[in-house]
Design goal:
heterodimer, A: 753 residues, alpha+beta, Aldehyde Oxidoreductase, domain 4, Aldehyde Oxidoreductase, domain 3, 7-stranded mixed sheet, 6-stranded mixed sheet, 29 strands, globular, B: 285 residues, Uridine Diphospho-n-acetylenolpyruvylglucosamine Reductase, domain 3, 3 domains, 5-stranded antiparallel sheet, 4-stranded antiparallel sheet, 34% helix
């Protein structure tokens, strides 16, 4: 947008409003929060993947020093919960169906006392047959993870059959016909592993019951209102009787979307009649958090002689674990990523999620992104190689351009993909793709959406002429609320530092869909901008009256309204309004319009339209050590169509951080699970990349403005995590000829694969 | 994790405390591995004897015979000691890749040896450098050759109660070169999947007079590939010999598969590391 020059606040690299406190350590996080008389809770977890609970005896534990309450599945009547299927229990009632499943909880004077007392709980189990492999779980003869699956309440969109807990299909044209007309047909199977979200602060909650049916929870969830309604459902009380407050959150990355410790803290606090804090240990994080689902992806693509895709058939099989969680959503949205940002005349893409006796999984940053993108973009390079085409050229021949119809029937607008492709290729030096022995370059394309969901904003003009903005999201480190405040400041003719942000309290802030789906800044800024316009109107009316001038004739500058040489400042207006009654307040809500799509193409799809789509290309230059198999990334380029950069600094931070997270998934991160047991459940053996493992991420911002976005912005947070596995896999193949089909791409797979 | 912590004022005091305790006690210095094992419940100890305030076990001294490292020397002390790191490049290379900075500021050389992890980086380097270990027990002091120290994972030949007081490194004479290399899943804060330390001494005629090949995480203890060493000693080193030596070293390993890597990978990589390590030493000479 060339118009950016005339803006005073948006588009500027201004410091974050929450920056000083976070840099100096003054900021309070949920894990810092404490109440007088607070107890500490610990969870006893199942050592078995599938077993019947024969007997639980808590007598000895109750007598241990400092123990104030013990809770089991039998001692409190708690309802089942789950985002799409009610298949989670707070504490196991009759059976355990995964290792690490909570069986009992203890609240004690100290964390140490609670931990000691856990050992005194006697549980007798009778082991049952379990299933760990998704393909085996789909077999009719496999043991059912939930034999009672038909009686578990589920959302209408969920299509279930035994261990299969969802199925989504996108169908276009006739794939069989497409394959028959193809010059070549390629079939491959790809696999990806479970990974942890990698937030710094473990999940934590402090719960306090303020009446027999009222409680307040201080925690580090990303979703205030989903947490509120889920807790209300579990405890059978009214949502408005549950107040959720996030004092601060040390990273989320999707791993804190769903309940973490809140329900355990609440159950224990109710039993102990005291506030209770529960925080997961790093070992619990790496064995019992909500991981990114492992997937198996089958992909069959037919092309003509020139490499144009004629037909694509694929299936993403998502290992949901023992409870469906986000599995159905991941499988569903995964079909769009399997299609990719390409023109597909014929397609048949299926996403299914499957119960196993593995640990339940969740939604990590771009929940269904990296896995199918790894499959699709790896296969694009394999096709290019087989056809003797440059992988860049193959993509050019198939990518979506302005006005093209995507796989879901949606007409694409503001498509910055080709520009991303061109700029990334130039930046990485694509003309010299294999600059030396064991060194190569790879790239990957991707697309993603800006999730919908409602946001609200309350604004009030303060007596000092500043503005307070109250919103129901959590600033989880992305700078989203600084971005939204920049938009408000721009509208109001204020400085960014004139905006006071209040957030993350379910009682006092308006409803919000939450900090997720690359939509936080997008939706909150749009709602707040609307509210700001309303507030300005009210201010203008008062100013006109005070100055005895016509509203339309008033000029606004330097936080004042002017009529010739006469002025009234915002501060004076606020003071006057407060005295005269009412004050100056405004509110607005926003929900992004749904993008039009062809409903006949999709079955049971959770997000069939792709609102304000974003487009991205990653390119990397790396070396492979042919003796050790080790990969060294020399350069890494991210080109992303962001629509418009409200604050380029934090936007770049998102793209850099996302790429690093993606490189971790590409090369080193993996929750290793054998028979339902995590083998590397500690930070010694779960390998997130260090500063030594990633180079400087080179960011290129491409701006094809979204009509719906504030100043044309698109959602940006999730996309950079999507492409790294494919880009790295393609570069590894270019460097040493090894094609790795199973993430992560370890040195061992490169050397022995 | 529940234990009594006994603070020792001197080596003799530590021995005296140990003599009065029931079995299951442990010495602790940096505690970088022991504390984790206690926390995870892998190991249980009712009593820990804290050696960290014994002044005589600190510091690095140099004399004509070589260097003496107090057992309480941290990895960072080694890394920052100019004379030591110049004399033994393999030791410097190993010390600077143990964990992260925080671990290196706390973890000690004595602990790295006594803990007897087959993957210990500094222990593997010291093994290639023929370190001598000064050990003290109730019955007196003795000197243990480092190759005689390790038995198997977390087992040493130290008698109950004996502690490591210092590590002595003989001065390297003439044309001697050493190297340390390791492989892991990432480039820092990493436990070795395989490591190799090589030390080669050359005569005036360029013939290798003495060879040491020490290997980590490819057997139950840090081990020496002695048959491979013998192939080098008395020989002029060329590419063909390096390949044979590396293959021989590989044959002397008995790696295991674990979540960090498979035996097959370790086996292949140890050969590559030995080849690379020897080449590094030869190139310098």
């Amino acid at each position: 947008m060339t118009a950016a020059k005339e803006f005073e606040v948006v588009g500027k690299r201004l410091n974050r409003l929450d920056g000083e406190g976070k840099v100096t350590g003054a900021a309070v996080y949920a894990s810092d929060f404490a109440l007088p008389g607070m107890l500490h809770g610990k969870i006893l977890r199942s050592p078995h993947a599938h077993a019947r609970i024969v007997r639980i005896d808590t007598t000895a534990a109750r007598k241990m020093p400092g123990v104030r309450a013990v809770v089991t599945g039998a001692s409190q009547k708690l309802n089942r919960f789950g985002n799409f299927i009610k298949d989670f229990e707070v504490f196991a009632s009759e059976r355990v169906y995964h290792v690490g499943q909570p069986v009992a909880g203890i609240a004690a004077d100290t964390e140490y006392a609670a931990k000691q007392a856990l050992r005194a709980i006697e549980v007798e189990y009778a082991e049952l047959p379990a299933v760990f492999d998704v393909m085996e779980a789909l077999d009719k003869a496999a043991p059912l993870v939930h034999p009672d699956w038909q009686s578990l309440k589920a959302a209408p969109i969920i299509v279930r059959e035994g261990n299969r807990c969802s199925r989504t299909v996108i169908k276009v044209g006739d794939v069989e016909e497409g394959f028959r007309n193809s010059y070549r047909v390629y079939e491959h199977v790809f696999r990806t592993s479970a990974v942890h979200a990698g937030y710094t602060e473990p999940r934590v909650a402090v719960a306090q019951w303020t009446a027999s049916d009222q409680a307040t929870i201080w925690c580090n969830t990303q979703l205030l209102f989903d947490t509120q309604s889920t807790l209300a459902e579990i405890f059978g009380i009214s949502p408005s009787h549950i107040r959720v407050i996030v004092p601060g959150i040390g990273g989320g990355f999707g791993g804190k979307l769903r309940l973490g410790m809140e329900h355990y803290a609440m159950a224990l606090a109710r039993a102990a009649k005291r506030p209770v804090r529960v925080m997961s240990s790093s070992e619990e994080e790496l064995t019992a958090a909500l991981f990114r689902q492992p997937t198996t992806i089958e992909l069959k693509t037919g092309v003509d002689r020139e490499g144009h895709i004629l037909a694509k058939q694929g299936r993403i099989v998502v290992d949901a674990g023992a409870c469906s969680g986000s599995g159905p959503l991941v499988a569903s949205t995964g079909t769009m990523i399997l299609a990719g940002p390409y023109r597909l005349p014929n397609a048949n893409l299926e996403g299914i999620s499957v119960y196993t006796n593995n640990h339940p999984n969740g939604s990590i940053r771009a929940p269904s992104g990296p896995m199918p993108n790894f499959a699709t973009e790896s296969q694009m390079d394999m096709i290019a190689e087989d056809l003797g085409l440059d992988p860049l050229e193959l993509r050019r021949r198939n990518i979506l351009r302005e006005g093209d119809i995507a796989v879901n029937g949606q007409k694409m607008t503001a498509v910055g993909l080709e520009e991303c492709l061109d700029k990334a290729a130039v930046a990485i030096g694509w003309d010299h793709r294999k600059p030396e022995h064991n060194r190569g370059k790879g790239l990957a394309c991707g697309w993603w959406m800006t999730s919908r969901g409602s946001s609200g904003s309350y604004l009030k003009l303060m007596q000092d002429g500043t503005l307070t903005m109250m919103v129901g999201v959590v600033e989880m480190g992305t700078g989203a609320l600084t971005g939204a405040a920049q938009v408000v400041a721009e509208e109001m003719g204020m400085k960014l530092t004139d905006i006071n942000v209040v957030s993350a309290d379910s009682l006092t802030t308006p409803y919000d869909f939450g900090s997720q789906g690359s939509r936080t800044m997008f939706a909150v800024a749009n709602a707040s901008r609307e509210a700001a316009r309303d507030l300005l109107g009210k201010m203008r009316v008062r100013a006109a009256k005070a100055l005895g001038a016509d509203e339309q004739a008033l000029a606004m500058r330097d936080k004042a309204f002017w009529s010739g040489e006469k002025k009234i400042t915002f501060a004076e207006l606020a003071a006057q309004a407060n005295t005269a009654g009412g004050g100056l307040i405004a509110e607005a809500t926003y929900i992004a319009p749904a993008a039009e799509h062809d409903a006949s193409r999709v079955q049971n799809h959770f997000s069939p339209s792709w609102p304000s789509p974003s487009f991205h290309v990653h390119a990397t230059d790396l070396s492979v050590d042919d003796v050790l198999g080790e990969v060294t990334i020399n350069r890494y380029v991210v080109a992303q169509d962001v629509g418009y950069a409200i604050n380029p600094t934090y936007l770049e931070g998102q793209l850099e951080g996302g790429a690093v997270q993606g490189v971790g998934q590409a090369l080193s991160e993996e929750i290793i699970i054998a028979n339902g047991h995590v083998q590397n459940g500690n930070l010694t053996d779960y390998k997130m990349p260090t500063a030594m493992d990633v180079p400087k991420i080179e960011v290129i911002l491409v701006t094809h403005p979204s009509v719906a976005g504030p100043y044309g912005a698109k959602g940006v947070g999730e996309p950079p995590t999507i492409q790294p596995p494919a880009a790295v896999a393609n570069a590894v193949a270019a460097a040493c000829g090894k094609r790795i089909m199973h993430l992560p791409i370890t040195a061992e797979k490169i050397l022995l694969g | 994790m529940d234990f009594r912590l006994h603070s020792a004022k001197s080596a003799d005091h530590a021995l005296e405390i140990a003599a009065g305790l029931k079995e299951g006690w442990r010495y602790v210095a940096g505690g970088t591995d022991l504390v984790i094992q206690l926390r995870r419940g892998v190991r249980k100890s009712d009593d820990l004897i804290d050696l960290s305030s014994i002044a005589s076990m600190r510091g690095i001294k140099e004399d004509e015979s070589g260097f003496q490292l107090g057992a309480l020397c941290t990895h960072k002390d080694i890394e920052l000691h100019e004379g030591l790191s110049a004399a033994y490049p393999a030791l410097l290379a190993a010390a600077r890749v143990v964990g992260g900075h925080q671990i290196r500021n706390v973890g000690t050389v004595g602990g790295n040896l006594a803990n007897a992890s087959p993957a210990a980086d500094v222990a593997v380097a010291l093994l290639a450098l023929d370190a001598l270990i000064d050990v003290k027990g109730r019955s007196g002091a003795r000197v243990v050759e480092i190759d005689e120290l390790f038995v198997s994972s977390s087992k040493t030949t130290l008698a109950p109660g004996e502690l490591i007081e210092r590590v002595r490194l003989p001065r390297l004479t003439g044309e001697t070169h050493s190297a340390f290399l390791k492989v892991g899943r990432r480039k820092a804060m990493e436990i070795s999947v395989v490591s190799a330390a090589i030390c080669l001494a050359f005569g005036a005629n360029g013939v290798c007079e003495k060879a040491r090949i020490a290997l980590g995480a490819v057997g139950p203890r840090p081990l020496r590939a002695k048959a491979a060493e013998r192939l080098l000693e008395g020989a002029k080193i060329d590419a063909e010999l390096i390949a044979r030596v590396a293959a021989q070293a590989r044959a002397e390993c008995t790696p295991r598969s674990d979540p960090r890597a498979s035996a097959a990978y370790r086996s292949q990589v140890v050969e590559g590391l030995v080849k690379r390590g020897i080449s590094q030493c030869v190139r310098i000479s």
